[in-house]
Amino acid sequence: MTLPDIKDTDCLLIIDVQKDFCTGGSLAVPDAEAILPWINTNGEHFNNIVLTQDWHPAGHSSFASVHDKQAPFDTITMPYGDQMLWPDHCVQGTDGAHFHDELKTTAAQLVIRKGFRTDIDSYSAFYENDHVTTTGLSGYLKERGVQRVFCVGLALDYCVRFSALDARREGFETVVVEAGCRGINANGSNDDAREAMQSAGVQLL
Ligand SMILES: [Zn+2]
Q1: How far is 157 from 93, CA to CA, in rounded Å?
Q2: Structural contact between residues 203 and 175, judged by C-beta atoms closer than 8 angstroms
Q3: 152 Cα–ligand 1 center, Å
Q4: How would you label 34-56 residue by residue, b for 16+ Cβ within 10 Å and e otherwise?
Q5: How far away, in angstroms, is 33 Cα from ligand 1 center?
């Protein structure tokens, strides 16, 4: 797959390429490692690279283990809306929270950590799941003159999806490169994500 011409005003947003989301991790996305060649090769073309890192305190409210009688992938109602419950993952400072060993991170200028507030989850690189609390990323990109955001990473149907939708909402031209993404794909959620992104004006490559 060839990229469109990359400009100085483009940013590559690499979402949650962490050990817990890869093979052997506690919330492994199928075939996750297949995204590494695309990201490592094409990352070289971008002047602006931002990484996100899911970064939960132990006992985070999105973990099924802290809720009585709930299992991973159940949905509960939180004050901010529906919340899918997950196996414990990406606990701050643990090995599983580290970036995949083969991910080239040297050229990245910023790491946005998210999900660090116990009572609220954060799928998007821009907003927590209340869609109000900001991570500051939009302001950072705008102050640096970024106009277009290329999204890659894990998982297509959750954190990539919500990051891309918020990038559009914040007024960025937004491209999701599928060669650089893999999804959990429970109950057709990859297709749901593609449909939601396309109808919001996100370009899928
Ligand atoms: Zn998480």
Answers
A1: 25
A2: yes
A3: 17
A4: ebbebbeebbeebebbbbbbbbb
A5: 18
pLDDT digits (tens, 9 = 90+) for 106-163: 999 999 999 999 999 999 999 999 999 999 999 999 999 999 999 999 999 999 999 9
The CATH T-level fold of domain 10-56+87-204 is: Rossmann fold (3.40.50)
Number of CB atoms found within 10 A of residue 119's CB = 12
Task: State the pTM of this model.
Answer: 0.96
Number of residues assigned to the chain:
205
Domain boundaries, the chain: 10-56+87-204
Could you tell me which residues are beta bridge partners of residue 149? 11, 174
* Residues flanking ion ligand 1, Cβ below 5 Å: 54, 115
Q: Report yes or no: 154 and 15 within 8 Å, Cβ to Cβ.
A: yes
The catalytically annotated residue of 11, 22, 90, 159 is: 159
- 22 is a catalytic site residue: no
Q: Catalytic residue among 10, 11, 16, 19, which?
A: 16
Q: Is 159 a catalytic residue?
A: yes
16 is catalytic: yes
| Token pair of 84 as six digits | 């899918």
